[in-house]
Design goal:
Blueprint lengths: L13 E6 L5 E6 L6 H4 L3 E7 L11 H11 L2 E4 L6
Antiparallel strand pairs: 1-2, 1-3, 2-4
Protein name: DUF2793 domain-containing protein
Organism: Microvirga arabica
């Protein structure tokens, strides 16, 4: 059977936030899930959606995200920040 592209599911789509106090630290949660209270506070900034449109900061790892979300409900990852 040939490999066919898998259609994204809600579990594969994420929204992500960047920490305001630790450059390059991000937190992703499933798009279909509830946003944890700590992400709503002043310490985090909404950055976008991961998945369908290919928007992905470096450091985001899909298998690691799935495992972390199953265990913890969210996925923390580090991405290189361009020095401007």
């Amino acid at each position: 059977m040939p490999n066919r592209p898998r259609r994204p599911t809600a579990a594969q789509a994420y929204i992500y936030f960047e920490c305001r106090f630790a450059r390059g630290l991000f937190c992703a949660i499933p798009k279909s899930g509830a946003i944890p209270d700590f992400l709503i506070g002043a310490g985090w900034k909404f950055r976008g959606t991961l998945g369908k449109h290919g928007d992905s900061p470096g450091g985001f790892n899909v298998p690691a995200a799935r495992a972390a979300v199953r265990r913890e409900g969210c996925y923390f990852f580090v991405a290189a920040v361009d020095e401007a």
